[in-house]
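Narrative of activities, Objective 1.

The group set out to show that a structural description can be obtained from nothing but a protein's sequence at a throughput compatible with the screening campaign. Below is one input-output pair from the validation batch, recorded exactly as produced.
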Amino acid sequence: MLRRDVFRAGLAGVGGFFGLRQASAAAAEDRLKVAYHLSDPDKVNFVLGNIKNHYEGTGGNVEVVLVVHGPALAAFKAKSASGATSSRFAGLVQQGLVPQACGNTMHGMDIALTDLLAGFQVAERGGVVKLAELQRQGYVYLRP
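Output recorded for this entry:
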């Protein structure tokens, strides 16, 4: 009788362990993934505000990638970015924002990664390619 109880307890423990692993995997999959597309320089602060609202509205349970290309990339040059843009951007990067700069735009505008605000990564194959890749990975596409 005792062996049977020990076996059942062990079986329940193993089942509980796998259940916890599945629950944590499901929680990670439930995390919202969003890709913001920014190319219009007039919308930089608007988009940064939307991203801030996304973090606040989800309690931080969101993965946000910001893909910047075209004329909007100039707004993120460290030497010429406004204080408001720099401050807001730095705060979002601290919250987990993953900013991606279009490699094609960088080349065309002669911008090096070191010219941009801290935190940027290069989308080597281009911003629009990066956006398509993110969508294929399950990211929701937003272009405010």
